[in-house]
């Protein structure tokens, strides 16, 4: 079966490719390689709602099964000062990466220890002909937001990775080694991968 990865976002596309690549009889199609121009407004009340909406609307405009996603970072210690759906807006959507880092540090300046826990959630939905066939959501990464960050060399668009520290690797996300990054991906995506594999294997396509 052919499954279209319904995003041009390089990070999300890579994560969904990782989830699909070992499933037998699945041919992965990338949105950048097909003539399809569908813009979906992410206006739902949850990550899962956004993923489902994208799966419905994109699959209604093509002949492929379509896998879509949405993801976001939650910081429970910030309470209603933080919104998993609007990370960028809170720290300054049009600000530089270093400004976003500093804005988040300022927002969290009074939080200590476990109050600085951050969790990344990833939602998935598989659609076909305008209907959602399957969906799920999991927390895929958990770390701590640093209390300080003096390094001004931040990889473009990876400002959160400059602050997210993983105690098990003793390093921030942006400075993990290739092996650590591969280990993190394998562990963090295991539940999602197993769920997707089970559905596709057992579904009567």
Keywords:
31% helix; 7-stranded mixed beta sheet; 6 helices; 7 strands; alpha/beta; 205 residues
Question: Would you mind describing this structure in some detail?
Answer:
The chain is an alpha/beta fold and about 200 residues long. The protein has one domain (about 1-200): Maf protein (Alpha-Beta Complex). It is built from six helices and seven strands; from the N terminus they run E-H-E-H-E-H-H-E-E-E-E-H-H. About 25% of the residues are buried.
- Strand/helix succession: EHEHEHHEEEEHH
Q: In angstroms, what is the radius of gyration?
A: 18 Å
> What CATH architecture would you give?
Alpha-Beta Complex
Distance between the termini: 8 Å
Helix content: 25-40%
Per DSSP, the total helix count is: 6
Taken as a percent bin, the fraction of beta residues is 15-25%
Mean pLDDT across residues: 94
Quick structural summary:
With 205 residues, this protein is α/β, with parallel strands linked by helices.
SSE topology:
Layout: E1 2-5, H1 10-20, E2 27-30, H2 47-59, E3 65-74, H3 87-91, H4 97-107, E4 117-128, E5 131-145, E6 164-166, E7 171-172, H5 178-188, H6 190-202
Parallel strand pairs: 1-2, 1-3
Antiparallel strand pairs: 3-4, 4-5, 5-6, 6-7
